[in-house]
Every structure is written in structure tokens, then in C-alpha cells.
Amino acid sequence: RRSRLVERLSSLMGEPRLARAFTIPDEEVSIITASGVRIEARIRDYHLTMDMTSKALVHDCGDWERSIETRQLCKHVGRVLLSLPAEVALAWVTEVESDIESWSFRRLSG
Predict the structure, then answer these.
(1) Which end of the chain is more exposed for a tag (fewer CB within 10 A), N or C?
(2) Which residue from 102, 55, 101, 63 is spatially nearest to 79, judged by alpha carbons?
(3) 42: phi then psi, degrees, rounded to nearest 5
(4) Does residue 58 contact residue 106 with C-beta atoms inside 8 Å?
(5) Number of helices and strands in the chain (H, E)
């Protein structure tokens, strides 16, 4: 499952971003909520919320601005997904990848 996850993440992020995701240390990732419906996490000083019901990815790093345009996940989103149990992460990645245009990539305001 882990190799399928890495393969799918690679297609959603690109190899360079995925490689950078692996360099973020465990202690810089804090998972607040992780289910099949919602993910909330902190990565360094950034926040991430992923909501399956509203199909929203909300994040606040500088690279996320470009991610909104290109519809690619940034290294922080990738790192959070890599921190989750493989089956949970794979379900999320599969859902996003299956219909990425229906997902809303938004910047956290505030």
C-alpha cells in the first residue's frame, strides 16, 4: 500500500516536491484529526484542512498559491498524507486524483 501511495502522490505532486516532502522531520508534523472525512494538521507553522464532504483542501504555505493554479499538492500536504496510516492516505489520494477538478484548492485566510 505504501508504494501505491508514493506512486499516486508522485502524480499529484511531481517527483521534486515529493522528494522534499520526505525531508520534513516527523516532529514538525502534528496530526490533529485524520479520518476518511476530514484531516486537520499542522506542519511547521502551517495549517492544513482537507474535507471530503466539501471536497476542499485549505492550506497556508507560500507554495500553495502556485498549487492552487497548477492543481498540484505541495510538500506539506504530501508530508501529512505520508504521516497517516497508508490505507487512510491512499483513500484520500485516490479520491482527489479521481476527479481533481471537482476539488477546491483554497488559501487559509486569516
Answers:
(1) C
(2) 63
(3) -120, 135
(4) yes
(5) 5, 5
pLDDT digits 0-9 by tens, 21-55: 999 999 999 999 999 999 999 999 999 999 999 99
**Adjacency order of strands within the sheet including 46-51:** 29-34, 38-43, 46-51, 56-59, 104-107
Looking at residue 25, its amino acid is P
Contact between 39 and 82 (Cβ < 8 Å): no
Q: How much is the pLDDT for 2? A: 81
What ranges make up the beta strands (E) of 8-103? 29-34, 38-43, 46-51, 56-59
Q: What is the dihedral of CA 97, 78, 107, 51, to 10 degrees?
A: 60
Nine cell digits for residue 31: 496530526
Looking at the predicted structure, is the pLDDT value of residue 1 above 80?
A: no
